[in-house]
Design brief:
Layout: H1 2-18, E1 33-35, E2 42-46, E3 50-53, E4 56-58, E5 64-69, E6 72-75, E7 80-83, E8 88-98, E9 101-112, E10 119-120, E11 128-131, E12 136-138, E13 141-142, E14 150-155, E15 158-161, E16 166-168, E17 174-184, E18 187-198, E19 206-208, E20 213-217, E21 222-224, E22 227-230, E23 236-241, E24 244-249, E25 254-256, E26 262-271, E27 276-286, E28 306-311, H2 327-339, E29 344-345, E30 352-362, E31 369-373, E32 383-388, E33 402-404, E34 415-423, E35 432-436, E36 441-444, E37 465-472, E38 478-479, E39 487-488, E40 517-521, E41 526-527, E42 538-546, E43 561-562, E44 564-567, H3 568-572
Parallel strand pairs: 2-9, 11-18, 20-27
Antiparallel strand pairs: 1-4, 3-7, 5-6, 5-8, 8-9, 10-13, 12-16, 14-15, 14-17, 17-18, 19-22, 21-25, 23-24, 23-26, 26-27, 28-30, 29-43, 30-42, 31-40, 31-44, 32-33, 32-42, 33-41, 34-35, 34-37, 35-36, 38-39
Amino acid sequence: MKKLLSCLFAALFVLSSCNKDDVIEVDSQTAPRITLDSENAVYTIKSGRELTISPTYENADKALYVWKIDGKVVGTQPALTVCEQTVGELFVLLQVSNRYGTASEELRVDVVELEIPTISLPVPEKGYTILVGSPLTLKPSVIDTSIPTTCTWSVNGKEVSSEKEFTFDASEAGDYTLEFATRNEDGEDSKEFGVKVCTIDEMPFGWTFDQTVFNLSAGRRIRLMPFDITNAFDASYTWSVNGKQVQQSSDPVYIFSESAEGTYTVKVEMKNSYLTVPQELTVNVCPAEGRYYRAGSPASSKDWNKVYEFLAAPGQFVNERYDVTTMDAACAYAESQMKLNTYVSLGAFGGYLVVGFDHSIENDGGYNIGVSGNSFDGSSEPGIVWVMQDENGDGLPNDTWYELKGSEYGKPETTQDYAVTYYRPRAAGMEVQWTDNKGASGSVDYLSQFHTQDYYYPAWVEADSYTLRGTCLKANNYDQSGNGSYWVNPAYDWGYADNFSPIDRLTDDPNSGAGVNANHFRISDAVTFDGKPAGLKYIDFVKVQTGIQAKSGWLGEISTEVFGVFDYNMTKKK
């Protein structure tokens, strides 16, 4: 203790001798102190934009500043300006040193996407063609942003509206250029297209043939007809078979019923007061039913053995956890899913899956086919089931499809030959817009809270739009809660896949756990184009197709899920 006191007195003596004013002074200089200009040490910057980080400092006279990102020195000044293109996180270390020590702070910079107001607007490849005085209503979709966005419509360079939706109506014929533009502080987007306004004699005729080659067994009839006819006016349709005229009328439908085997050239010519348009078709009349029947054997599998086609409509499960860019790869994906007894989602209306078997499935008058889904009480997503015989014997599903009628078949509210065209979104995270052949339009919503893949538009569809056609049931889903929180998708009586039917599930199990369960189908319910019994003795291929165009609020689109397809005859015989 004495030694310690003597040292202290000595120190005081030295200090006092150095202080000419006889005041004791202790050196107050210490290590630097840093105060960031962000409370949580996290900064946000948009891609390609500059951000300056300007902390405040204490005891920083003559200090050295070092900023590091990933161990690399990026700055030696008190402030740091960051500009980064790549979206993601940057981890920054700031060190400030003087001769008394070093202070450091770790901070994070979150680089986020620019919120550019990207436009999606379905426009025909060659623009619109409309009749003088016919209004054209345009409803673009603009990606949601958190910052104010303006919209403008221009016609021939002149601004005509600042609303998002716009109705164009021209009283004079001619070519018009329309542009829709969006702008905000992050960027802008625009869509320009042409509109040709015609007099009645200038309106172009249009029709669609889904196929030009048809196969059917001898003794059967087939309906030949164009779809999506536009601007026919006073059209007359003349049909000929192998050069011989067989029908001329205003009805575009011809029922082909030649019974002799062979290849027939069928021509149809549309003629109105303004033009003539021809189309040639080929019909192959194949051997009578039974020639290509494939009997089962003890080695036959009850389950499907190949997926021939898988073309989903857009939907929240499309492209999720699988990345395919061709039809072959899509079929391989569907096969791998069903082999694991896992679902294949068909997406919104029209999405479909085609499977075959290693034998023909016989029609014994009862239930013959099973399709597995995951329906439960209040959650039905009905799929239409179609069947086909291999009528030409080539082992491919390129013959005639027959719908298996269900409880809604033939009702006024059920729409046959319903077609929907889906359009590729222009940016990730956008809804998929659609139009139908009844003049309606809508969208498949993007559900960012559940399914975050960039696009719900199938990646294996190369075109910017595609059309799916089939039978559409009237939607019966509803919001039971009244506030959008609880949606119900009730079952239809019978005859549909992924449907909680009280009849064709053949069980009273409530399936409260949403497990895999099957609907069962009778080949004897197959009908021809005009609703008559097809009378098929067996089938070789099955197609399951989403049969409804509806969405249930936050749950998204109603989409049929398929876990498998099987020969129920082999199950019920055991």
